[in-house]
Write a structure and sequence with these properties.
The protein has 145 residues and is mainly alpha-helical. Helices cover 79% and strands 0% of the residues.
Length: 145
């Protein structure tokens, strides 16, 4: 059974890496180049709202799937995996509208603020908080037993 758990973790990590490597091919995101240049003086990209939002939602669901595989493989607890998924959905539900507002105002709210909001939309950063939190929770539960 441990092999299956480690396989889930490896597939999850490889999936997250794959999403990152194939981002230009898989997702519609004209802001990839814009932020890659790290030059706020270049022209604001032309884009289609519908395709952009669908691209972000699709990317989020792939990241969510692979993140849940990692959580399940590490902790072997479906309830915790569900809780992790809910936390990631909440962060995405907060970050996406803020980032879309930044886009609507052509990043007038601040280039760096927009850059980091975008990170919460396109990258599964919350997993870096969830894993230590669940690990701590597991340690506390083991001490109580």
């Amino acid at each position: 059974m441990k092999i299956l758990n480690w396989l889930l973790v490896i597939v999850g990590i490889c999936g997250l890496i794959g999403v990152r490597i194939l981002e230009e091919k898989l997702f519609y995101d004209p802001f990839l180049g814009y932020f890659h240049e790290a030059n706020k003086n270049i022209g604001f990209p032309v884009f289609e709202w519908g395709k952009l939002i669908l691209g972000y939602v699709f990317r989020f669901f792939l990241n969510l799937l692979f993140s849940c595989l990692i959580i399940q493989g590490l902790f072997k607890n479906k309830q915790w995996t569900l809780q992790g998924a809910v936390m990631m959905i909440i962060v995405f539900a907060i970050a996406l509208p803020i980032y879309l507002y930044c886009i609507g105002n052509q990043f007038e709210i601040g280039y760096l603020f927009s850059f980091y909001m975008r990170r919460f939309v396109i990258q599964p950063l919350i997993i870096l908080l969830i894993i230590p939190m669940f690990y701590y929770r597991k340690q506390v539960m083991m001490r109580e037993e």
